[in-house]
Structures are given as C-alpha cells and as structure tokens.
Amino acid sequence: MRPSFLKRMERFNKGLEILEELRNYEIDKFSTDLKLLSIAERNIQVCTEFIVDFSSYILSKLKVEIPDTYREIIRKVREEGIIDENLEKKLQGIVGLRNIIVHMYADIDAEIIYDNLEDIIQTLREAAAKLLEFSKAKNIDP
C-alpha cells in the first residue's frame, strides 16, 4: 500500500475511534456542547471523504469514468458491484450529511447526529472493508 493511503487509512480509523468516544457523552451534554458537535462533524466529514476518495481511486484503476459528485461516485461503486444496494443507500445518507456539514445548507440537529453515530460508524467501517476486499481481489494496490 502507498504511504499516502496508509496515512489516510490511519486517519480514517482514528476518526472512527473519535466518533465512538463521543458516544460516551450523555445526549444532553452532546447536544449542548458546540465543541463536541464540531468534533463529530469534522470526523464524519474526514471519514466520508476517505470512502469517496478510495472509491474514486478504485474506479480509476478499473478505467471507469469517475462521476463528478460524491453521490454519483457511490452509485457508480454499487453499479460496479463493489458494494450492495443497502450499503449504497446508507452511504448516500452519510454523503448527504457530509454535504450539509461542509456547505452549511442547514443547521445540524445535534441529537440526530448523536442518535445515528453508531450507524454512521458501522456503515463507514463496512464500506472501507468492502473497498479493501475488492481492491485486494482485483490486485489494486491502494
């Protein structure tokens, strides 16, 4: 694996670890502490971008045209058989959340993030595993 990929993978794993730690806070504390919400938002963003960038890299190695948007990249990864429809649907939701965070389309409801942290973590972890599994099967060195 390329050193740059290993560094990003390490940051991805650290981001998931940080998100898991946030579950230790009570909902009242999490939802009223802007610092905790900011930590959650940033790590959701970083981890989501890792999944999309890794997906784009795999698509490029497959000589598949890389779509312009994060949502289209996730759709294309499913069309290529790398992930299933269920995982695509979950990732589309996380990509949508990431877009809201980054582009500030709307205020983020801290309770919604808190209530969905476990699903977000599991989905991102599953996506990374599927991408790694596929890249190994196709001899794609990330």
Describe this structure in words.
The chain has 142 residues and is mainly α. The protein has a single domain, classed as bsu32300-like (Four Helix Bundle (Hemerythrin (Met), subunit A)), CATH 1.20.120. The protein has 6 helices and no strands. The longest helix has 28 residues. The model has no long low-confidence stretch (mean pLDDT 95).
Query: Per DSSP, what share of the residues sits in E-state strands of 2 or more residues?
Result: under 5%
Question: Could you say which overall geometry the principal axes of the C-alpha atoms support?
Answer: globular
- Quote the CATH topology: Four Helix Bundle (Hemerythrin (Met), subunit A)
CATH superfamily: bsu32300-like
Low-pLDDT runs of 5+ residues are: none
From N to C, what is the helix and strand string?
Answer: HHHHHH
- Supply Rg: 15 Å
What descriptive keywords fit this protein?
142 residues, mainly alpha, Four Helix Bundle (Hemerythrin (Met), subunit A), 6 helices
